[in-house]
Automatic annotation (TrEMBL):
Residues at which Mg(2+) binds: 225, 245, 249
Organism annotation: Streptomyces fructofermentans
Biological or metabolic pathway of the protein: Amino-acid degradation; L-phenylalanine degradation; acetoacetate and fumarate from L-phenylalanine: step 6/6
Domain Fumarylacetoacetase-like C-terminal: 116-401
Protein name in UniProt: fumarylacetoacetase
Cofactor(s) it depends on: Mg(2+); Ca(2+)
Amino acid sequence: MPPFDVPEGDPFGPHNLPYGVFSLPGSDRRSVGVRLGDHVLDAGAAAVELGSPYAALLARPSLNPLLAAGRTAWSDVRRALTAWVTVPAHREAVAPLLHPLSEVTLHLPFEVADYVDFYASENHARNVGRIFRPDAEDSLTPNWKHLPIGYHGRSGTVVVSGTDVVRPSGQRKAPADPAPVFGPSVRLDIEAEVGFVVGAPSTMGTPVPLGGFRDHVFGLCLLNDWSARDLQAWEYVPLGPFLGKSFATSVSAWITPLDALDDALVAPPGRTHPLLPYLDDASEEPGGYDLRISVAVNGHVISEPPFSTMYWTAAQQLAHMTVNGASLRTGDLYGSGTVSGASENQRGSLLELTWNGRDTLELPDGKRTFLEDGDVVTLTAWAPGPDGTRVGLGEVTGRVVAGA
Ligand code: CA
């Protein structure tokens, strides 16, 4: 048997070890945990029990101290954790600190500092262009191939997987309507994305180059950028997304360290335009990640977006986000943008899947264009791991509930 009775081939085996924060029943005490199969290891308690020097980073109520500690500490802690869950000599000490996932409460694992969202899928950007600017000569805006487009979102409404999402209300006005009306969104959508979590901060005034990505970014997670398309359509010109997005962004309870994803690194799609030097990754290590995402509504898979198709990499996004001298803070989160592949069943939003409500999706429980109250949206994903294994990403799920 593999170490600690994790079934062979489990995507959450000792090759993965994503980090989260949990509490036990009847307790308010939050602890850093590491997922192993269908259990969570109380990593802080293990560090204390084993007299580890990393207890100061792990015996904490959030991941922030570990995130702030930087690349060398991340690698050292991961090496220690791997030993704790695989070396038989540690079994007696560690086994009592493994709790069934079904018995714990998972919390937002880090304090989100700034939240930025990008727009890095060419397929998604072209689909959106065709839907909203059907008469334009090019479905991409003129800047799209020259810089990773992004905007600053609302960090205070980033919520952990499992949190209900209240249908937002706001203004909407279709082009033919004489005046705007106020009410619950009638075009509530999802965006299947990957979120990158910044650990080590940077200095204001000093850009982070492409090669600094692994020194600053700790890991990644699945992210659902809930979007009210009707609110968004009326408000977004000229300053971009605002209330149509800021009501909720869901992230997984588990942050997968980049160190677990070395076998998933892939080259991004071929570049069609020359890039300015600070974004030119031709001579860099491959910056794409081969993550196979699945989107389900009420348990029914509606799409399987491939992250490997993203035109802009997370390293390019980080370089662009800091090239003006803006600094990074521990806990900064940036979303990749909606992940959409080339084919229809790889689109990461209902906007694209139903072509802005023109078409309907057939679900076992009825037709959909956009989300109805009670719908549960769940994103899952896996990536190639070492020796033919799979690295599972923690799911992100959320249920739509009616507004008050
Ligand atoms: Ca988005």
